[in-house]
Inverse folding.
């Protein structure tokens, strides 16, 4: 299993051996170096990273991939710190990655910041990496997705991917995890509305955090969200949905991360989800579908980048776009004209 | 305004003049012929259709574009028949188009079938066209979108685009209309769950049809859906959402299409929506965004079709896809390899 695959260059051979090896300190350094290689914009780095990634791939897939989202202030860091330490206490190894779309603008990521997870960040059984901070959301998501594979190859059996409630990044995290958890505050009124359209229905589990602040509000919020998830969150075959015991119904639980109450409950629910999804084959199917969707997402992004960079297209794109916006050329006609220029 | 634009071939000149003209019988025939031209798969037809479409474009944009969706059995046809006759009675001209994704499989469309709308289908002020019945959903949606423009140029001031509750076609209809209405049955339990994930939150208006069957159930359903829409349906700037009087909040109303009660209410709500959205500039902004998104949707589809047809890609695609599904090649690596083959 741990024999270094043939044909890998020497530097990557060393990284490979350290990542799949048993020694924790060189392992963490090797993961960090590999992720830096993945994040490099130099084409030769990209090629080396691809070879290393494929060599590591047989060692991946054995973790639980957990997406955690919620608006700023909901207490994600404290929750992940508490959960992470709880899991390490049970013998797990925990990796925390992040996708922060704002970091691609500011150039610096606040998410995954080690200073926010004081105990976890220094623990030998944890690996914390902030969000990649440049590129498109697709590019950032790609590097996080690949970092997740590296962490899995290194034996982290719980990989948490954290993001903030703004819509597109949630879709990206949902597309790379086994379970998508949304953290909410107990006040069911205005603050719940701060989640973007399309985010709540991605949730496999909604966690009402800081539930001890207002127990009645948390109970009301739980009832409301449960009812709404029932109306909105349905997928799969509608005829079998409420008979199939192998189907997971999105759940809503209450916790208080600060007082460490409910983290047990949370993990029990996650484990139950994992069991139901594994037994029904949905976990494996979800991963296969994610891999295929991801391949096509990257192909689409690559095709569109080439299209935009094509000289004849570049000459006409802005002009035709504004003709379309002004209602002087039909959108489908503009698309056909631009496609004719691209060859 | 009605001068025939320069450079249009003779046959299209005639169609143009009939479409924007005042004579109802040749107008309806010309619309039907133009739509047939749009639906043709012959490239020279497509070019002629494009020229005609661009010539008609200055006459478009003055209708209200209304999307109507709901699962089979909810009473869409009866509702559209009642609504259409009501609007014609008020002096409107009504076009009914359809997107039926099942028709691309069966080759025949049940939606938009004239026999289901007995009075409307024979009325001089109405135009009914079933769903295009071949091609991808994207292609079907494109032809419906273009047919809508032709109807607008012909002076139909209410264009209804009908579809059935299966998810992807709803997104397509939402992407070409000013207002998306979802029809529901009053039993808020199991039947509501038959809507696919992601459809309810597209709704600008939910209509509980056949509300007279069970008044209590309809009232409960209305309360549940209203609450759920509040939790899930939010978009725009969350900080201003509940202060901005110019913002439309999705509404839920009850009607009985069979007994013709509530169609007044329905149209009043639609008119109110139109006023709010026009005043705030959101109607115009939605159309601009739709046009631009549509152009890119067609470009993406075109690029992907070329990619799949490329000989070197075609050779490798199936093999690499199965390597990705089997977990032997990382999705991003496969995407890069395939993109390298495409040139």
């Amino acid at each position: 299993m741990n024999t270094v695959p043939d044909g890998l260059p020497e530097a990557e051979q060393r990284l490979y051996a350290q990542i799949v090896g048993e020694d924790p300190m060189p392992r963490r350094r090797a993961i960090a170096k590999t992720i830096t290689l993945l994040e490099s914009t130099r084409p030769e780095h990209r090629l080396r990273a691809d070879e290393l990634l494929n060599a590591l791939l047989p060692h991946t897939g054995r973790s639980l991939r957990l997406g955690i989202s919620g608006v700023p202030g909901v207490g994600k860091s404290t929750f992940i710190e508490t959960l992470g330490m709880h899991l390490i206490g049970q013998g797990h190894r925990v990796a925390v990655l992040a996708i922060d779309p704002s970091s691609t603008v500011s150039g610096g990521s606040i998410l995954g910041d080690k200073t926010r997870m004081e105990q976890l960040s220094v623990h030998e059984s944890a690996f914390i990496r902030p969000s990649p901070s440049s590129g498109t959301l697709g590019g950032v998501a790609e590097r996080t997705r690949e970092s997740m594979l590296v962490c899995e190859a290194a034996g982290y059996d719980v990989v948490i991917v954290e993001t903030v409630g703004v819509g597109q990044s949630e879709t990206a995290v949902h597309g790379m995890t086994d379970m998508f958890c949304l953290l909410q505050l107990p006040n069911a009124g205005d603050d719940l509305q701060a989640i973007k359209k399309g985010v709540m229905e991605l949730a496999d589990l909604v966690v009402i955090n800081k539930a001890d602040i207002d127990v009645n509000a948390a109970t009301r919020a739980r009832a409301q969200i449960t009812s709404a998830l029932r109306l909105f969150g349905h997928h799969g075959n509608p005829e079998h949905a409420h008979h199939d015991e192998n189907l997971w119904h999105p759940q809503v639980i209450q916790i208080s991360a600060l007082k460490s109450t409910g983290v047990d409950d949370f993990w029990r629910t996650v484990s139950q989800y994992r069991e139901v999804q594994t037994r029904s084959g949905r976990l494996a199917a979800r991963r296969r579908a994610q891999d295929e969707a991801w391949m096509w997402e990257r192909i689409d992004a690559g095709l569109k980048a080439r299209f935009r960079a094509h000289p004849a297209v570049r000459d006409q794109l802005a002009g035709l776009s504004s003709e379309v916006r002004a209602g002087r050329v039909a959108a489908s006609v503009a698309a056909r004209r631009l496609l004719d220029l691209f060859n």
